Amino acid sequence: MPIAGLEARLQALAASNCSWDLQAIQRIDSVGAILLWRAWGRHWPESLAISAQQRSVLERAAAVRTDFETGHPMGSLFGVLVLGRMALAMGKNLRDIVTLIGQLILDLIFLFSHPHDIPWREISANLYKSGAQALPVTGLVGFLIGVVISYLTSLQLKAFGADVFIVNLLGISIIRELGPVIVAVLVAGRSGSAMTAQIGVMRVTEEIDALATMGISRSLRLVLPKVVALSIAMPLLVIWCSAAGILGGMVSANLEMDLAYGYFIEELPRAVPVANVWIGIGKGFCFGILVALIACHFGLHVRPNTESLSSKTTTAVVTAITVVIVCDAIFAILTRGIGLPGGA
After folding, report:
1. What is the pTM of this model?
2. Pairwise CA distance, residues 94 & 132, whole Å
3. Residue 276 near residue 323, CB atoms below 8 Å
4. Which helix (H) or strand (E) holds 20?
5. What does pLDDT average to in each consecutive run of 10 residues of the chain (344 residues)?
6. Burial of 222 by CB count in 10 Å (0-12 exposed, 13-18 middle, 19+ buried)?
7. Backbone dihedral region of 57: left (phi > 0), alpha (psi from -120 to 50 degrees) or beta?
8. Sequence spans of domains, the chain
C-alpha cells in the first residue's frame, strides 16, 4: 500500500476514537512511528496497548520538532543586517590574515637561525608552477594588450599629428600600470586558485591534520614556499608581460603609423623614466605576496566537503583580484609624483 494511502487510513481510524493494540506488530521503524504519531494528532490516544520497544520508537518520533518558525522579512533593517554580517566576515578574515603574516614572520626568523630547514624543494616547485608555466599566457595577453592600445590610440594621435607620442603613452601605461595589474589578475585566477584548491584538498583529505600530528609546521611547508615563490615570480612576470606589451605596441605602431622600430626603441628610454620600471617591479612584488596570502588563507579555511572547496576557491580569486585593484589605486596615489612628466 502506498504511504499516502496508509496515512489516510490511519487518520480515518484515529478519527473514529477506536482502541489501538500494536502488540501484534513484530517490528516498527521510524517511518511507521511518525505516520502513527501524525495520525494520532501528535498526542497519545486514550486506549493504547504497545510493547516497551514500540513505545521507545514512538517517543523518539514524538520528540521530532515540527514547530520551526519561518523567517520573517527584516524590512528596512535587512540591509543593515547584511552589511553587519559582511563587516564581521571581513574583520574575521583580516584578523586571520594578520595572524598568518605573523606566523610567516616567525617562520622567517626561525629559518634565519636554521638555514638547513629552508624548504628549497617546495619553493622551487611553486616557483616553476607559478612562474615558468605562466610565461606563455602572460606573454600572449601582454602582447595583445599592447596591440590593442597602440591601435586604438593611433587613430586619435594621427588626427592631432601627435604620432610620436605613442611611445610615451604605451611606455607609461604598460610598464607602470597595465603590466603589473594584468599579471596579478592572471596569476590570481591561475596560480591563486590552484593554491587554494591544493590546500583545500589537503584539508578535505585531512593531510594537514596529519602534518600537525607529525609535528610539521603547515605554514613552513605549505604557506611560506608559496608566498616566497610568488614574491619572486611576480616581478619577473611583470617585466616579461610589460616587454611583450611594448613589443605588441611597437609592431602595431609600425603597421598603423609607419613608426620605425629603431625610433621606437631609441625614444622609449627617454619617454619612460626608469622610476616607472621600479614602480612596476615593486607592484609585482606586493601583488605576489597579497595573492599568495589570500589564496593560502582561504585554502586553510576550507571545510571537509566539496561545496566548501569550490566556494572558497571562487572567493579567493575574487578577493585577490579586488585587493590587487585596491592596492594598485593606493600605489597610484602614493607614487603620483614619481616618474611622470611634471613629477619630482
Report:
1. 0.73
2. 31
3. no
4. strand 20-21
5. 70 74 77 77 76 79 64 65 86 88 90 88 91 93 92 82 83 90 93 91 86 83 91 94 93 86 87 90 94 92 84 92 94 85 56
6. buried
7. alpha
8. 3-62, 100-334
